[in-house]
Every structure is written in structure tokens, then in C-alpha cells.
């Protein structure tokens, strides 16, 4: 069976975290979507809380400490990305944005991404569309059409396992799986080598 | 192997006293630090170049020439000379003049500079940093090696019949290093010309340095300047020492915690683990520094940053005593014992003159009008010195 790498980033701060719960549900949906296409998912899940100090240090020093570098390497190497953040004050959490800020500007180019968020009430539901989608558009990532928002009330209700949230999770997971399955894994770029010759650089080419 | 110090030239408040030196004090302290470096037996003093507060070295050759006049053996260098925003004609003239004044006791290190506004202040664009470094340096080499230059490029007004004066001492330009933290284009540039490559090494993880040096060595061999292990490599380092390592840790911590670049971020313990910073006894500094060779190979120049983060002059001079008396003599002996015979030393003026088959006076005399210099041609009879 062929295999694809899926990296999951959860910016939930509490433990247990509803953001992590949503991320896990989405991961399962992506895994299922890939399986129906005969593809095995190699999943790496990272919570940002344990890297919060490293993320601040990286912003101040310009380099990521070893623990954070592992997360960044997994993001860069992934065939597809699932990101989930709580909505704080009309946008993604500051920790989530700081993590995105310490990535190289081309790190997510052409990478399929599923965006998801949690919040206390449904009034924040469009934050994914006005805050997260433009952020990933700027980074030239390929964001799947379905963004998944879960308010506290979505986790309850009589029709939980078959309700609208679960429907959205499965639809979004299927969309990411389709993009990832269709994608040829690009060769990893080595930042310490060159592709152009010095004569070309000297000639201004 | 050469050992020395390099300075950023920052005017930083001493966090333990709240006192900030004046520019005058910092400039005079820089001279005191450089002359002390020679006194304690170090080989190299290098200064940065900056054009904004809180930095004092905007005119590095002025300072270096003054130090040259007060020293006898010390090699004066830069860390770095801004090849992007400084007119290469001015670099050619300034550093050739310094060469004459110091009797060849100078080299220089090219760098791009990473202060955004400096580029527009000098009419340049930071996004073209690499292109500027490549075009400007190529012109600089021509200005030093060709008596009359006709030149046209993208970034500077063209030159027709231009002679950069004074000509290099003994007809041999200063040796050039190229410094970069993580741009392989600059390692490639150094390799292409067979110049030295200097890895800043401090403030960033050693893994960056290891990969950049490996790339530079491989390309140095590719361009036919020698085997990879004969490439000319320099490294930075940052240390704070006291006889007793706990005293060093206690004394340096407030400077670390408030330092420019990394202050208010990682703990000193994290940073000493992640980067080559060593805070401890001279023995610990010796052990760590000898370890650099394990990931970059035999190298030619080791410079230490000793005077930043607001450390008072008195403390810096004490640090230089420890470096010169207890650390460098051991490092010299140990590194020399490990270095194979086919690995060269860092080039000096004397070795470059010898490699050129001897020195000659390279003066270009104006033909006709020697007052205004309006007519210039190659008229020099090469007289062997």
C-alpha cells in the first residue's frame, strides 16, 4: 500500500481540549478518506502548547530550538496538513499565529491544508473564512473548500455522531484526502544547496 | 591557526548598573580592547560596520588605521564590511589605504547586513542583497587587480578608464573572507574565488554552520582551488569566563538575559546547549572550542565575541587576559598537533606576496596632468621591491 504523510497541528491550550478533539476527528476522516483510495496515512500530531516557549524563543532568536524544529520539519515534509485553533478575539489564537510566523515563507506553498476551529458560540463561525483562509492563501497553500468550525453546542445534541458537525468533518476529511492522494510528493528542498551556477548569478541570470 | 576577537560595536546599557556608555567612551573602549588583544598575544581584531544607533562603527577603516598605528603585529579585519550598501569603489580605496598604513596587516570580511532600512538609506533594496553582494564584489576584485577599469553593471554608475588609488600594497590585494549565516550563494561565491568563508557560528545552532562549511568546502574543491580540506574556514565563538565556572554563570546571566539578539528569550542554559555560547571556566572554553573542529574540520581562524551586551570595559579586558593567557596558548598547541601538513594556514600579506612570486610597487602614475588626474593610463614600470 502506498503511503502519505499527514501532519496535524492543534493549538488548543487546555487538556483535554475541544480543539484537539476536533483535530482528532478530522484526522480520522482524512485517514478513512485515504484508505478508500488504497493509501495508508502516516500521521504526526503536534500540540502547540508544549512548544509555546520555543515558539517565542524562535521569534526572538531567529532559530527554532530542537523540539520545535521537529514540528516544523513534520509540517514542511507533510503531504497534507490539518490545522485546528481555538478562536480568540475574532481570530486564531496568538500562539497559532506565532507558530505560522516562524515558518519559512515558502514552507506551505502548494501544500493541501484543512483548516478548523473551535469556539464557545456559533457567533465566531466565520472567523475561519475571514482570518484563517486568507492567512493560508497568503502562504500559497491549497485550502480545502470545507472549513470545519465547532461551537461548544455542536458537541452535544441528540444526533451527535450523525449530526451536521460530523457531516462537515467527513466532507472536509474527504476533500483533503482527495487532494493528498492526487498529489505527487515533491522532492524536499535542501536550503543548504544551490540550483543555479555562480556564472549565472554573476551574469545576473 | 589565527585567534582573535570580533566586535559588533554596540552601545548597550550595562543591565547591572543601568549605565549606558557614550559613543565617545565606546569608540575609545574599542581601541583599548584591540590593543589589549595584541598585548595578550591574539592575532586578529575585527570590527563590524553599521549605520544606525546603537552602533558606533560606521567608519571601520578610520578605527582600524588608528589601531594599526598603536599595534605592531595585530591583523586588522572586519566582521563584516557591507558589500551590499557600500560603494565598491570606496571599499577598494579605503582598504588599500589601510593596507599601506598597516604595512599589510589587514584583511576584510564581506557581509550583506540585515538591517532593513540601511538599504534604502544608501539607495539599495534588501531584496537584492545577494545580487548586490555578487556584482559589487566582482567589481571590487577588478578594481584591485586591474590598473584601469571599464565597467558597467546593474547597481552602480558605470566606470570608464577608472583607476582605484592607492594600488594594493606590493601589488597584492588584501585577503578576503565572506561571511554568511545561512545563504549558500555566499558560500558558493567564496568557493568560486578561492576566498575564505567565515561562519558567524554564534547565536545560531551549530548544525547551520556544519552544513554551510561542508557546502563551501565541496564547492572550493569543485572550482579547483585545492582539496575540500584545504579550503579557508573561519568561525565565530562567544564565551564568558571566570576561573570558577559558577562565578562565570552568575556574573554573565544578567548580561545574557538582557542582551540584544537573544535577550528575554531562551534561558542561558538552553542557549548554551543550542548554540556555541560557552559560559564557564577556561578549561570548559578550551574543550568546547576544540570540539568545533569535529564538525567543520581543520580551520584557519577562530574569532571570539567578547564585548557585547553592555559588559563594562574592565570586565572585557579581564576576559581578554583569560583568553590570551589560559585559553589560546592551549588551543594553539592542540589545534596545531591535530592539523595535517597539507592543510594551509590562513593567508597573510606575506604569504600572498610570496605566492605572487614577490611584491612589486604597483603605483599608477598619471600621464600628463598629475594634479587633477584627468588622464590615466597604465604607465607604471613594475619595479620589484
Detailed description of the structure:
The complex is a heterodimer of chains A (205) and B (385). Chain A is α/β, with parallel strands linked by helices. Chain A has a single domain (2-202), classed as 3-Layer(aba) Sandwich (Rossmann fold). Helix content of chain A is 41%, strand content 21%. Chain A is built from 7 helices and 7 strands, in the order βαβααββαβαββαα. In chain A, strands 1, 2, 3, 4, 5, 6 and 7 form a 7-stranded mixed sheet that branches. In chain A, a hairpin with a 2-residue loop joins β3 and β4. In chain A, α1 crosses α6 and α2 (52-61) crosses α4. The termini of chain A are far apart. The model of chain A has no long low-confidence stretch (mean pLDDT 93). By secondary structure, chain B is an alpha/beta fold. Chain B has one domain (2-384): TIM Barrel, CATH 3.20.20. Chain B has 12 helices and 14 strands. Chain B has helices at residues 23-39, 60-70, 88-101, 118-121, 129-145, 184-193, 206-222, 245-257, 268-274, 282-296, 313-338, 349-355; strands at 2-7, 44-47, 75-78, 81-82, 108-111, 149-151, 159-162, 176-179, 196-199, 233-241, 278-280, 301-305, 360-361, 383-384. In chain B, the strands form 3 sheets. In chain B, strands 1, 2, 3, 4, 5, 8, 9, 10, 11 and 12 form a 10-stranded parallel sheet that branches. Chain B has a two-stranded antiparallel sheet with strand order 6-7. In chain B, strands 13-14 form a two-stranded antiparallel ribbon. In chain B, α2 (60-70) links the parallel β2 and β3. The model of chain B is unreliable at 378-383 (pLDDT under 50). The interface between A and B is medium-sized, with 16 and 29 residues.
Amino acid at each position: 500500500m502506498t503511503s502519505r504523510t499527514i501532519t496535524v497541528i492543534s493549538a488548543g491550550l487546555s487538556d483535554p481540549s475541544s480543539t484537539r478533539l476536533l483535530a482528532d476527528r478530522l484526522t480520522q476522516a482524512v485517514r478513512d478518506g485515504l484508505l478508500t483510495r488504497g493509501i495508508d496515512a502516516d500521521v504526526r500530531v503536534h500540540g502547540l502548547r508544549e512548544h509555546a516557549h520555543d515558539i517565542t524563543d524562535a521569534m526572538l532568536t531567529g532559530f527554532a530550538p530542537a523540539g520545535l524544529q521537529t514540528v516544523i520539519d513534520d509540517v514542511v515534509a507533510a503531504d497534507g496538513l490539518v490545522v485546528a485553533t481555538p478562536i480568540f478575539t475574532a481570530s486564531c489564537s496568538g500562539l497559532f499565529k506565532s507558530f505560522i510566523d516562524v515558518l519559512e515563507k515558502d514552507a506551505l506553498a502548494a501544500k493541501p491544508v484543512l483548516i478548523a476551529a473551535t469556539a464557545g458560540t456559533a457567533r465566531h463561525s466565520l472567523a475561519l473564512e475571514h482570518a484563517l483562509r486568507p492567512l493560508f492563501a497568503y502562504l500559497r497553500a491549497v485550502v480545502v473548500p470545507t472549513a470545519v468550525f465547532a461551537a461548544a453546542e455542536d458537541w452535544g445534541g441528540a444526533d451527535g455522531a450523525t449530526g451536521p458537525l460530523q457531516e462537515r468533518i467527513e466532507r472536509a476529511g474527504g476533500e483533503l484526502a482527495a487532494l493528498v492522494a492526487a498529489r505527487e510528493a515533491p522532492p524536499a528542498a535542501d536550503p543548504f544547496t544551490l540550483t543555479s551556477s555562480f556564472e549565472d548569478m554573476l551574469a545576473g541570470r | 591557526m589565527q585567534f582573535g576577537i570580533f566586535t559588533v560595536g554596540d552601545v548597550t546599557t550595562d543591565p547591572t548598573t543601568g549605565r549606558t556608555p557614550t559613543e565617545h567612551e565606546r569608540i575609545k573602549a574599542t581601541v583599548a580592547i584591540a590593543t589589549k588583544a595584541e598585548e595578550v598575544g591574539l592575532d586578529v581584531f575585527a570590527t563590524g560596520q553599521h549605520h544606525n544607533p546603537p552602533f558606533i562603527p560606521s567608519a571601520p577603516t578610520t578605527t582600524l588605521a588608528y589601531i594599526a598605528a598603536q599595534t605592531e603585529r595585530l591583523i586588522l579585519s572586519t566582521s563584516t564590511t557591507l558589500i551590499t550598501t557600500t560603494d565598491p569603489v570606496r571599499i577598494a580605496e579605503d582598504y588599500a589605504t589601510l593596507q599601506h598604513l598597516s604595512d599589510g596587516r589587514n584583511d576584510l570580511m564581506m557581509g550583506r547586513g540585515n538591517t532593513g532600512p540601511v538599504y534604502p538609506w544608501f539607495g539599495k533594496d534588501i531584496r537584492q542583497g545577494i545580487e548586490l553582494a555578487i556584482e559589487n564584489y566582482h567589481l571590487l576584485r577588478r578594481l584591485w587587480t586591474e590598473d584601469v577599469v571599464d565597467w558597467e553593471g546593474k547597481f552602480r554608475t558605470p566606470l570608464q578608464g577608472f583607476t582605484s588609488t592607492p594600488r594594493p600594497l606590493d601589488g597584492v590585494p588584501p585577503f578576503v573572507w565572506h561571511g554568511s549565516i545561512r545563504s549558500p550563494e555566499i558560500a558558493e561565491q567564496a568557493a568560486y574565488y578561492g576566498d575564505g568563508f567565515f561562519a558567524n557560528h554564534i547565536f545560531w545552532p551549530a548544525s547551520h554552520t556544519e552544513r554551510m562549511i561542508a557546502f563551501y568546502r565541496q564547492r572550493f574543491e569543485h572550482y579547483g582551488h585545492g582539496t575540500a580540506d584545504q579550503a579557508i574556514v573561519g568561525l565565530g565563538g562567544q564565551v564568558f569566563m571566570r576561573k570558577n565556572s559558577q562565578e562565570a554563570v552568575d556574573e554573565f546571566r544578567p548580561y545574557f538575559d538582557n542582551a540584544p539578539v537573544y535577550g528575554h528569550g531562551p534561558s542561558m542554559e538552553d542557549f548554551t546547549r543550542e548554540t556555541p555560547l560557552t559560559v564557564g571556566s577556561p578549561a570548559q572554553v578550551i574543550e568546547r572550542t576544540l570540539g568545533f573542529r569535529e564538525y567543520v574540520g581543520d580551520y584557519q581562524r577562530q574569532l571570539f565575541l567578547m564585548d557585547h551586551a553592555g559588559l563594562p570595559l574592565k570586565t572585557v579586558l579581564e576576559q581578554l587576559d583569560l583568553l590570551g593567557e589560559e585559553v589560546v596558548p592551549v588551543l594553539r598547541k592542540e589545534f596545531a598537533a591535530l592539523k595535517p601538513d597539507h592543510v594551509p594556514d590562513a593567508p597573510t600579506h606575506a604569504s600572498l606576496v610570496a605566492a605572487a612570486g614577490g611584491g612589486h610597487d604597483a603605483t599608477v602614475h598619471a600621464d600628463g596632468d598629475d594634479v587633477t588626474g584627468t588622464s590615466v593610463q597604465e604607465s607604471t614600470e613594475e619595479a620589484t621591491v
